[in-house]
Write a structure and sequence with these properties.
Elements (H helix, E strand, L loop, with lengths): L2 E2 L2 H11 L3 E5 L8 H11 L3 E4 L12 H6 L4 E5 L11 E4 L2 E2 L4 H7 L8 E6 L7 H10 L3 E3 L19 H6 L5 E6 L1 H8 L6 E5 L4 E4 L1 H20 L2 E7 L9 H10 L3 E7 L4 H5 L6 E4 L3 H6 L8 E3 H7 L5 H7 L3
Parallel strand pairs: 2-3, 2-4, 4-5, 7-8, 7-9, 9-10, 12-13, 12-14, 14-15
Antiparallel strand pairs: 1-6, 10-11
């Protein structure tokens, strides 16, 4: 396993908590290791270990309902930093990816050859290497800035999928951004700032310049927004996951009704095409859960879905040009 889960420390903290029943949450890419993790915890703690089989898309996706229904004493959430505060005992295990970055850093020099000032950020799995990466680029003659934490970021230089306010702090001071991680975080960064974004993809072992994908997604967002403008019957989706709530439906509902839209309020824990299909009379949706649902999964839905921020364009409270300038996230 290339990941460091610090299982001895996890076992120690479970024992110190005196938990008798524990629910563990694993991100999708870690579920293949569930057997090893459960085996280790079962041998090194006195707790009964239960594994959640439901999706886990981030630190926002905490299995509080499962934990309460199963009457567990502790929820162990692997793979993400703390995102929300909850009135329930949660142990966050920040997985470290030990991939050797040497070859990737060397490859990346071609992509940043024309840039002097670099903004450097990372997903949680690579935060333990961000200072080493900073020194590498500085030794190559670059001026490197790691932004202070802001919003949902847990550390300086840390990025999460739903907002990139820390990058915006230094947007005007750098020539480009480098993201350590995967396409999810680098695309989010590209849609949030108006500087080139380069991904150091530690999963596919490649360097990716995000501009082409950004342009493709922006075209998709324009199409979706225009379709919602034309729609008569609109569904507003309220996310029920505790960390996935953006915007208030009451205000949007009133404003949309004022311009002649028929509104249906829906709640969903997870938005899928199968669930949306049943609402055949609704022509499009505004989702107030994770903004990446509308953006990332555009091709999965046969009806347009837009985010809270994009709904402001529909309501003429924000110009399309301002959305491009301020960012989609």
């Amino acid at each position: 396993m290339k990941f460091d889960l610090d299982m001895d420390n996890v076992s120690k903290q479970i024992n110190e908590s005196k938990a008798k029943r524990v629910l563990i949450q694993l991100p999708e890419g870690m579920k293949m290791y569930a057997g090893e993790i459960v085996d280790h915890l079962s041998k090194n703690t006195k707790a009964e270990i239960i594994t959640s089989g439901n999706s886990n898309w981030g630190g926002c996706d905490i299995a509080l309902d499962e934990a309460n229904n199963l009457k567990v004493d502790l929820l162990v959430h692997f793979g993400h930093a703390q995102f929300i505060k909850a009135d329930f005992p949660i142990l966050y295990v920040e997985i470290k990816d030990n991939t050797d970055l040497t070859e990737l850093l060397e490859k990346s020099l071609n992509s940043i050859n024309n840039y002097k000032k670099i903004g450097l950020v990372s997903s949680i799995q690579h935060m333990h290497k961000i200072e080493d990466v900073k020194k590498y680029y500085e030794n190559e003659g670059k001026d490197v800035s790691i932004p202070n934490k802001k919003g949902f970021a847990a550390y300086d230089g840390h990025v999460v999928g739903c907002e990139y306010n820390s990058l915006k702090l230094i947007d005007k001071e750098v020539d480009c951004f480098i993201v350590l991680g995967n396409q999810f975080h680098s695309l989010g960064a590209a849609l949030s700032v108006n500087k080139p974004v380069i991904l150091i993809d530690t999963y596919n072992m490649e360097i990716v310049e995000m501009e082409k994908l950004k342009e493709k997604v922006i075209k998709q967002r324009a199409i979706a927004i225009n379709k919602i403008k034309e729609a008569k019957n609109i569904g507003i989706i309220i996310g029920t996951k505790p960390g996935q709530r953006f915007g208030t439906y009451e205000t949007i509902k009133k404003k949309l009704e004022a311009i002649g839209k028929n509104i249906t309020i829906l709640t969903m824990d997870e938005v899928t095409q199968d669930k949306l299909t049943n609402f055949y009379n609704i022509q499009g949706f505004i989702e107030l859960a994770c903004p990446r649902i509308a953006i990332e999964d555009y091709g999965k839905y046969d009806k347009p879905i837009i985010t809270y921020r994009e709904s402001l364009v529909v309501l003429n409270e924000m110009k399309w040009e301002d959305l491009l300038e301020k960012g989609f996230l």
